[in-house]
Amino acid sequence: MIGKWTVLCSMAGLLSACALLSMTAKDDAPRRPYGVLQNATGIKQHTTGVKQNVTGIKASIERGKKVYAEQCLSCHQVDAMGVSGMTPPLVKTKWVLGDKTTLVQIVLKGLTGEIEIDGDTYHNVMAPHSELSNQQIADVLTYVRSSFGNKARAITPAEVAAIRAKTK
Amino acid sequence: MKKFLANFLPVRAAWLILCGCILAFSACAGDAARDTSKVATAADNGSGTGAPNDDGLILPAGFTVTTFAEGLGKARHIAVAPDGTVFVKLAKLKDGKGIYRLRDTNGDGKADAITGFGSFTGTGMTVRSGYLYASSDEEVFRYKLDDKNNVVNPDQPEKIVTGLLSRGEHEAKAITLDYDGNLYVNIGAYSNACQVQDRTKGSPGMRPCPILDSAGGIWKFKADKPGQTYGDGVRYATGLRNVVGLDWNKATNSLFVMQHGRDQLHDLFPDMYDQKQSAELPAECMYELHQGSNGGWPYIYYDEFQKKKILAPEFGGDGKKTAGEDAQDPVMAFPGHLAPNGLLFYTGDQFPAKYKNGAFIAFHGSWNRAPEPQKGFFVVFVPFQNGKPSGDWEVFADNFSGSPALTASGRAQHRPCGLAQAPDGSIYVTDDSKGTIWKISYKK
């Protein structure tokens, strides 16, 4: 009984989210940190919480796309597939889809030395990007993790802040 | 999925809906992304070439091509012994081997006797006076060939040079020999522009650049003396960021090299260079070198539009200030970021007369032009007379990428890398993407 309700509910959620996305596709979404919304509205304001959360992630992705174009694209390329032997791809790899801490730390501290992905090695110098704000890092990683065929959870500014605090 | 949702049962409805939304969103975003990748796949298939074949390249009238070999993986430089035996160096082991010997025993233009040896990866490959020279990213080895050009001891080459710097950037040790027993080795700079922090916005350039003591130039060693390292070599030329294509020009009796110019002018100095300028600048340059030559890196770069040596922005430049009075001008300048990986001066008689003593250059293709369209992935020709270019460069062999769309996206099917001349005057071109080797000939 409860199981059916759960499935129904999540189905409704899926549908409404998709509808909502198409409806808000051309909106200028308010630039609010969705992480805060998620925590603040998740329990008390059911409906608006949903709307703001999706809008929030969408806005984050849109901002992230701009950060990607300015900070990442020239090496990782338009399709995020990187450059053979030099710059690793950001598509469907554990480096991007896996542990958030590692991923955020790569952005903060950069990455040098050889890495291997699916039997191919890559080595280019990635500069540290610690000058980016927590919001910018959250936005660009949320964008990358939900684009180019990737499907992974959003990253919040609060998560970036926490990782930054413990990163030397 | 059910299990995942079941974990959320005690949570209120809002959380479930939120979850649903996040799932739905990532599903929708995923679809959009897949659509993009479909376009790329369609373009891939749309080129119609599929597997490499005789028609894969576009050549001037009268030239023909055969696919000499394929499937060798990262095939870098290539060398041909006097009897036509071909040797190719791989940057990734194939079946545990880093060098392949290829022979065409029935003369149909395709290798039919192929054997591998050598357990190291690398780029450099050349044959001279009964020896095969091969480089890893830290060493240069030499194999004795017998009178039939078989490798005498494939498991125990002599180590001619050891301990060369390889720090994960510009690490390929391209090699060539002169006709006086000297070996020339590229030791690329482990840096883009000699900043304190490499490729980092706001980090200043180091003057003097400490990298130049041990890299960023061409080093000269004895070709027949094992066990040499820096102390035994001479820094022949400096101020060269990275050289992969190089060849000894018999006509001038001098070394010619192709420099890979610096990257990321826009990334590092967005207020000074827009993305279009950054895609075009700086030029990829050909230099003729002699003892003591200086290409000027990292302090200057060559701007082929202003036709000047421009002070690099890391060292106070603004895109206009000139500098590098102590550095030589290039013999010829090419569009930015095309990555010249192979250079061959043509000494054969098979091709029409205009090709004699001219230079073929294999351009590996760009990455640092994004978001502007990528370029390159072709072999160009530069005519020479009396040791100097006698005309502008022209594209000789094109369509290695498979289509104009694949060139623009940089997702080339093949990337030209190494060049060598066969005894009959045909030339070989390698591809370090899929490991195809083409043999290009001229039929009257």
How big is the Rg of chain A?
17 Å
The helicity of chain A comes to 55-70%
Say what the CATH topology of chain B is.
Neuraminidase
Instruction: Provide the low-confidence segments of chain A as ranges.
Output: 1-49
Gross morphology of chain A is globular
Largest sheet of chain A: 2 strands, antiparallel
The low-pLDDT segments of chain B are 1-53
The total tally of domains of chain A equals 2
- The amount of beta strand of chain A, in percent, is under 5%
Q: Regarding CATH, which class of the largest domain in chain A?
A: Mainly Alpha
CATH superfamily of chain B: TolB, C-terminal domain
User: What is the CATH-assigned architecture of the largest domain in chain A?
Assistant: Orthogonal Bundle
Structure characterization notes:
Chain A is 57% helix and 4% strand. By secondary structure, chain A is mainly alpha-helical. Chain A folds into two domains: 43 residues, no CATH class; 118 residues, Cytochrome c-like domain (Cytochrome Bc1 Complex, Chain D, domain 2, Orthogonal Bundle). Chain A has a two-stranded antiparallel sheet. Chain B is mainly β and 444 residues long. Chain B has a single domain, classed as Neuraminidase (6 Propeller), CATH 2.120.10. Chain B is 12% helix and 33% strand. Chain B has five helices and 29 strands. In chain B, the strands form eight sheets. In chain B, strands 10-11-12-13-17 form a five-stranded mixed β-sheet, with no helix packed on it. In chain B, strands 1-29-28-27 form a four-stranded antiparallel β-sheet, with no helix packed on it. Chain B starts with a helix and ends with a strand. In chain B, 50% of the residues are buried. The interface between A and B is large, with 64 and 56 residues.
